[in-house]
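Summary for the steering committee. The consortium agreed at its last meeting that each partner would contribute one worked example illustrating the joint modelling workflow. Our contribution is presented below. We chose a case with several input lines so that the handling of multiple components could be demonstrated. No manual editing was applied between input and output; the record is shown as generated.
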Amino acid sequence: MTDRRAVITGLGIVSPVGIGAEASWEALVAGRSGIDRITFFDTSAFDTDVAGEVKGFEPTNYMAPKDVRRHDRSTHLAVAATGEALRHAGLLGENGMVGPDVDADRFGMVFGSGIGGVGLLLEGHTTLMERGPRRVSPFMLPHMLPDSPSGQVAIEFGIRGPNMAVVSACATGGHAVGEAMESIVRGQADIMLGAGTEAPLLPLAFAGFSQMRALGTPKDPDTGEYNAQMASRPFDLTRDGFVVSEGAAVLVLEELEHARARGATPIAEVIGFGSAADAFDMAAPADRGEGNQRAMKAALARAGIGPDAVDYINAHGTSTPLNDRFETVAIREVFGEHADRLAVSSTKSMTGHAMGAAGAIEAFVCAKVVSTGCIPPTINYRHPDPELTLDYVPNEARAADVRVALSNSMGLGGHNSSVIIRRFED
Amino acid sequence: MVTGLGAITPIGNDPAAFWAHLVAGVSGVGPITQFDATDQEVRIAAEVKGFDPRDWMDFKQARRMSRFAHFGVAAARQAIDDAGLEIGDHNRDDIAVVVNTGGGGLAEVALGETTFQTRGPARVSPFMVPMMSPSMAAAQISIQNGIRGPVITSVAACASSVQAFVEAQRLIEHGDVDVVIAGGTESAILPVSFAALANMGALSKRNDEPERASRPFDAGRDGFVFGEAAGAFIVESAEHAAKRGATVIAEIAGGAMTGDAFHISAPDPSGYGASLAMKRAVTDAHLEPEQVDYVVAHGTSTPLNDATESKAIRAAFAEHADRLAVSSNKSMVGHTLGAAGAMSGLAAVFAIRDGLIPPTINQEAADPACDLDYVPNAARRATVNVAIVNGFGFGGQNVVTVFRRPEG
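What follows is the complete predicted structure of the assembly.
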């Protein structure tokens, strides 16, 4: 259909395991958890008190103080991660905007978020209740919509091409990277950011998840002692829920010839994207990960490769009993015997679950895996679940010749997305 | 190819009622009834009237969905029936849902926060998170109808549902699926959203004459009227429509998106991004600007948008701008944010089908900055072969879709 190829030329990330690509990757390879006791609000009324907070993040390092005040934290994280990715890709001019040698009209983004600036909405609601409607901030509304990060990133850096914000709950990041790839392959743009951001660490959101009985218990399953870092235990027999976290990740996707012409170095290539709905239930995944299976198959078909070509899967692996079981079944169904030769790890064991940013964070991981030949582990894996028998790369990173990596993301409402990233080859 | 329509709107809860009232110039704006707005600066809205979700789904399902999802499910159901589309094992994997929104289940967040503050975290509904997610209208349409292809929600503020058309066309052109249920939905008639929008200075303050409050392009315009609505379109490939003998109402011929990269709530006053999106959309449809007959304007009734949009239309169409009909249905349905593009899509499709251009009502005093033909106050008979729909969102997201009369 087309010979346009979408290569990755820049990466940026702000996550609970580190600010910046170097710090985050170093922590993931070292198996270091970013999960800890919540410091953002008083947790005394809650059953659980852990989350993946981004530590030491100072938004004024990335945005003017006036803009920082008006924007939600999800936008702060988005702008910070984008700045890093654009610098990495060599796309920033001296004034901190996209350089004059790049056609900003052919440069766009799909910047997703699961819930957008819900923090600002809650501030506005509190003001309304306590002080009346006339005191609600005039900046609240445009700054809280889920497309506010994508709007502000465009403004901060002068990016004027196709601009959209996809929302598919926890599958958002995967959809964003996939749709960005499609925009390049289809010729709608020459450079696209595929990205996600989320800042859901608010008492109300926490209460909502807590009431769904979806959150992991922060204790050592062997000793019963409190242990924040052990709350996320994907694929382990004792897993009992996920850990909410925040963060943003940005992949700069660029048409190969465009990248070559300006002398940019391709880090990896996004070659496949598949999307499918469960059409089953609002919260629970479909039996045997049926929708996830179809998304993986669609991504393989789009990439034009067979299951045997895949070496590594970055699992959605949330650490809930049901997700990890069904995802394992889905991988077995799609990959057959090859499933036993695959490495599968869940970096949510360290980052927690950053909702709409998760798929972008994990696409970042896949890009690093294929470009470095190192697979980050699933930490906190001590008790094999007899039903879950894949190679989950337990507890320690592994050197491996990974040419093709697949990232799975699934969301509330039955959204499934799979993205395939390949080592860059001419 | 557009083969089916659904609509829940302030001027009618099905496409036929919507169109009849739009052509008759009936305003859907009135005093706010969904909450006590006594202490609000703005007390008018374009609300959907007489909508009962139980007409479209069972009581238990309805309770676990936010109002924006109710609207989306209802409009999609109408569109599926209108198109005579049967969904079963033979095709459920080859149908996609792209139903966008601006804010999603804001009502659930506001309700959850009130519960949280007054009664504590243990009383927050376990359904709050799945109910509030903006992706839930599309997800519920998928669940209620057993549709298992791609289910996508994208948000571009007020341009959201125009983007749904662009996405639908792409999914079909590239052969990903045969059928897309595309559209938008919004329901956020809440104290907090009215307070915020009023304090932005975005809303009309004509509380005493609601039906005259939304007056796009008129010199007396003073802001938009916030509304709620949903619109759904069955979009399918020409082959698929022909094979099942469906009636084609119109064709989505092209689309484009651009970003202003200018300001989070104000449009770039040069109109550059908006005019670029119009030009690219027409090119994408393999048409010349001179072939466009009707522009369904974004036309919000804010001083800045309407002047900028008029300038952008002139920049995109040059001399042909004076031969174009331009009208804004927001004069009647208000600004329904994430559903606004779907409202405009309905206007475009019906204008092509019936050779009738709906008016912009409340045109009383001309604004020198708005010097196009806005079809003032009364509908007009005219052959419409090509209509474009403009949608411009907060944050400078410009999206344009081109609708065309089906060939043959």
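Residues 67-83 of chain B form the longest helix (17 residues). Chain B has 13 helices and 14 strands.
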